[in-house]
Each structure stands twice: as structure tokens, then as C-alpha cells.
């Protein structure tokens, strides 16, 4: 009987895959109505298999369970551009397929201007030697946490941090920056091997995740600026929520763009079950954490993020739960937070 059930499951999977292909040839299966139609089709196929083969109650539960695990959510190589109203529909249709996802936040490693104590802001400065080491160490800390999609700012120090961190991941997938700037960029950067795609992780670079723009302070020495304008004035520019430096951005202005991008482009990926890593900057990440932890404007200005230290959140049933920073690649604590993370690590142990 077990062999019989197994054969039926295989047959059901073949039929379901054919159904997916048929639906996809007509249009992409990425909206609620198509998913409902497909779910009805799966239930119909399952019912026919059960009734035609006179299966026992126990065997029926086996094949029904198998059918319920089928997901019709497409693998996404770049973020969706759906409107807010579409996102609400997306939430309702996704929850039955995925109930948990990991979100990793990493502030970039030390940059060459951090090393020189200069205001950096949106100036595109690379990592220092210490920053490179911090990025590699961050990668070791998250080496057994699943990563399906990476978002970075448009600045090289954040991108270097993401790339260097992923060199340490046990899954050994290759991070590849997605180029959607122009039609030619998309065409020229295509990957034509399905096997290679499966061993790659899309990296989305977005200016909305950039550090706050420090205006006329960019490139100035922090100590010399304090001596010139006074410590209190410089402290207000750096640490207040709504006071920008001359011709620059306040934290409030930075939060507007960073949080809007997170809600529109990143949160839908988490809803679909994708595990996401964000490598960005002190102020853009503080803005996102303000949204995740529901901090007030007064609470967020006292929030400090160390360079190169990953922070883990679990996204489940529409809620974000902070789990702190993974201690290290061999520590068990972080993997005990959820059964899903523990199982993922066990699979890595079995594979590698």
C-alpha cells in the first residue's frame, strides 16, 4: 500500500507540474485569483485520485498533505513593483504557503573614511582592511542561516560587505548583482543556465538604502567640524531625528525613503517565504529597525549599530521578532530560535 501511495503521489506531482506550466503559458501565476483556480484544480485532481483508487482514510491524508504543500509562488530574481493595495491581496494569498522567513541586517564594515574619522554620507568609499575583516566575520556568523535574496545600498562599502559575507556561507551560492538599469543591462547580464541560476543569489542594489546624505559635512573631519561649529551643533546634526546638516538629510528624511522601500520591495519577499539579507548603513538600518521594532523618534536616535555585526529577525504571521546577533558559526543558540532554522542547519550538516 505504501508503494501504491508513493506512485499516486508521483503521478499527482506530474499532473500538478503540467498544470503549473499550462497556467504559466497563459499568464504569470502571481495573483490571488490564479492561485485560487490552481488550488481548486489541485483539490480536484487529488479527489479523483482518491475516489478512483478506493484509498483508505490514512492514505487519503498522506496524499492530501502532499498536495497542500505545493507552492505556486514564483522564484523572484528582482523585487516586485506592486502597489500597496496589491500587497494586501498578496499577504492573504501567501500565508497559506509560507509561515516564516529570516531577515538579516548588517551594517557595512568600517570604510576608509570611517578609519580617517571623516563624514562619509553618500560619498562612495570602499572598506578598510578592518572593514573587510569585519565583513568576513559577519559572514561566518550567518553561515548557517538561509539567504535567498540580498538587498544592498548603491554604495560600494555595503556591496562589498554583502559579497564578502557570502563567501563564508556554507550553502556556497554565488551572489550576483541584478542589473535592471536599462533594457540592454538586463539583456547583457542574463544567465542562461538553469543549474547556474539555482546556485546563485540575486543581489538588488537600491539607492533608497543609502546612508543619509550629510550635505556640506561630507568629507570633513568630525573633530575639526566640532571645533568649528561647536560640539552641541554637530551632535544635533548627527543625532537629532528631524534636524538636517547644511544641505543634507535628517534621519527623518532618510527614514522616509528607506522604510518606504522596505515596505514596498522587501517585505513582499519575506511574505512569499524568502529569506532576506540587507547590507546597508547606520542610518538607513536604524530607520528600518525603527519600523520593525515600532520605536519612537526619541528611541531611535539612541540606537547604535556596530559595523559588521549581523542582526537577525524572524518574520512570522506578519510580525517581526528580533533575535539579536548570531554569536558565531559554531554556536547552537541562534539555531534554536526556530525549528525551521534548526532543520536548515541540519540539512547543511548532512550535505557538507
What is the CATH-assigned architecture of the largest domain? 3-Layer(aba) Sandwich
- In spatial order, strands of the major sheet run 3-4-2-5-1-6-7
Portion of residues in beta strands equals 5-15%
| Average pLDDT for all residues | 78
What is the CATH class of the largest domain? Alpha Beta
Enzyme class: isomerase
Active site: 108 (tele-phosphohistidine intermediate), 211 (proton donor/acceptor)
Family: Belongs to the phosphoglycerate mutase family. BPG-dependent PGAM subfamily.
GO biological process, one term: glycolytic process
Question: How would you explain this protein's 3D organization?
Answer:
- This protein folds into two domains: 2-68, no CATH class; 84-351, Rossmann fold (3-Layer(aba) Sandwich), CATH 3.40.50.1240.
- It is built from 15 helices and seven strands.
- It has helices spanning 2-26, 32-53, 57-68, 84-94, 112-115, 129-141, 156-166, 183-188, 194-198, 222-229, 231-239, 251-271, 282-293, 297-300, 339-351, and strands at residues 101-107, 149-153, 174-177, 200-206, 276-280, 310-316, 319-324.
- The two termini are 35 Å apart.
Keywords:
single chain, 352 residues, alpha/beta, Rossmann fold, 2 domains, seven-stranded mixed beta sheet, 15 helices, 7 strands, 50% helix, disordered N terminus
Task: Provide a concise account of the structure shown.
Its EC number is 5.4.2.11. This protein is an alpha/beta fold and 352 residues long.
Amino acid at each position: 500500500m505504501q508503494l501504491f501511495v508513493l506512485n499516486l503521489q508521483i503521478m499527482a506531482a506530474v499532473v500538478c507540474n503540467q498544470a503549473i506550466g499550462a497556467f504559466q503559458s497563459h499568464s504569470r501565476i502571481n495573483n490571488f485569483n490564479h492561485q485560487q483556480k490552481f488550488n481548486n484544480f489541485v483539490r480536484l485532481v487529488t479527489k479523483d485520485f482518491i475516489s478512483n483508487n478506493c484509498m483508505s482514510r490514512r492514505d487519503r491524508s498522506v496524499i492530501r498533505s502532499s498536495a497542500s504543500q505545493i507552492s505556486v509562488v514564483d522564484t523572484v530574481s528582482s523585487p516586485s513593483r506592486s502597489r500597496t493595495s496589491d500587497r494586501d491581496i498578496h499577504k492573504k494569498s501567501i500565508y497559506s504557503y509560507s509561515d516564516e522567513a529570516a531577515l538579516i541586517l548588517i551594517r557595512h564594515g568600517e570604510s576608509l573614511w570611517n578609519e580617517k574619522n571623516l563624514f562619509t554620507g553618500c560619498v562612495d568609499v570602499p572598506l578598510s582592511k578592518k572593514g573587510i575583516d569585519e565583513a568576513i566575520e559577519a559572514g561566518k556568523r550567518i553561515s548557517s542561516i538561509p539567504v535567498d535574496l540580498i538587498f544592498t545600498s548603491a554604495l560600494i562599502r555595503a556591496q562589498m560587505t554583502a559579497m564578502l559575507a557570502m563567501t563564508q556561507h556554507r550553502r556556497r551560492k554565488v551572489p550576483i548583482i541584478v542589473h535592471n538599469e536599462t533594457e540592454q543591462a538586463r539583456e547583457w547580464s542574463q544567465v542562461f543556465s538553469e543549474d547556474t541560476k539555482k546556485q546563485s543569489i540575486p543581489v538588488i542594489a537600491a539607492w533608497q538604502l543609502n546612508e543619509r546624505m550629510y550635505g556640506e559635512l561630507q568629507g570633513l573631519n568630525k573633530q575639526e567640524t566640532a571645533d568649528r561649529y561647536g560640539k552641541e551643533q554637530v551632535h544635533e546634526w548627527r543625532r537629532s531625528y528631524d534636524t538636517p546638516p547644511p544641505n543634507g538629510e535628517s534621519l527623518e528624511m532618510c527614514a522616509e525613503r528607506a522604510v518606504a522601500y522596505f515596505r514596498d520591495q522587501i517585505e513582499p519577499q519575506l511574505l512569499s517565504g524568502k529569506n532576506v539579507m540587507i547590507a546597508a548603513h547606520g542610518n538607513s538600518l536604524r530607520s528600518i529597525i525603527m519600523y520593525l521594532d515600532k520605536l519612537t523618534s526619541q528611541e531611535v536616535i539612541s540606537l547604535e549599530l556596530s559595523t559588521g555585526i549581523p542582526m537577525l529577525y524572524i518574520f512570522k504571521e506578519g510580525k517581526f521578532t528580533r533575535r539579536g546577533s548570531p554569536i558565531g558559526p559554531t554556536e547552537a543558540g541562534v539555531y534554536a530560535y526556530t525549528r525551521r532554522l534548526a532543520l536548515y542547519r541540519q540539512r547543511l550538516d548532512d550535505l557538507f
